[in-house]
Amino acid sequence: MTTLLTGPSASEDLLTVPQVMARLQLGRSAVYDLLRSRQLASITLGRARRTPAHALTDFIRTRLEQEAA
Q1: 8 A C-beta contact, residue 49 and residue 40
Q2: Which residues is 48 bridged to in the sheet?
Q3: Is the pLDDT assigned to residue 18 strictly greater than 70?
Q4: Average confidence (pLDDT) over 10-27
Q5: Residue 1 has pLDDT above 90, yes or no
Q6: Three-class SS of residue 13?
Q7: Which of 33, 37, 46, 51 ranks highest by number of CB atoms within 10 Å?
Q8: Which top-level group of life is the source organism from (predicted)?
Q9: How many other C-beta atoms are found inside a 10 Å radius of the C-beta of residue 35?
Q10: Buried b vs exposed e over 42-54: b needs ≥16 C-beta within 10 Å?
Q11: How much is the pLDDT for 12?
Q12: Are 27 and 21 in contact (CB under 8 A)?
C-alpha cells in the first residue's frame, strides 16, 4: 500500500493562501477569486484552505499556454 503524502516534505506540498499570494504576487482577494472560480484547485481541511503545490504549477502552466496561443 502506498500513501499519497510521504517523506519530510509532505507538509510543503500543501500551500496556504498567504504562500500562494506570495508565489503569484497577488492579493488575498485575487487568490480567493481564483479558488472560488475553480481556476486554482484547493482542498479544505477543517476551516483551512490549502492548495496542492502541483495545482499551482498546473495553473501557471495553463496560463502560460493561454498567453502563448
Answers
A1: no
A2: 45
A3: yes
A4: 91
A5: no
A6: helix
A7: 51
A8: Bacteria
A9: 17
A10: beeeeeebbbebe
A11: 65
A12: yes
Residue 63 cell numbers, joined: 496560463
Domain membership flag for residue 48 = yes
496556504: which residue's cell? 16
Q: How far are the Cα atoms of 9, 23, 29, 48, 61 from residue 64, in angstroms, in the given order?
A: 27, 15, 22, 28, 5
| pTM (2 d.p.) | 0.79
The total number of structural domains in the chain stands at 1
Q: Which of 60, 57, 53 is nearest to 9 (CA)?
A: 53
Question: Mean per-residue pLDDT for 50-58?
Answer: 97
Give dist(CA 59, CA 37) in Å, integer: 12
Cα–Cα distance, 43 to 54 (Å, whole number): 13
Pick the more confident residue, 19 or 10: 19
In a domain, 4, yes or no: no
**Is pLDDT at 51 greater than 50 in this prediction?**
yes
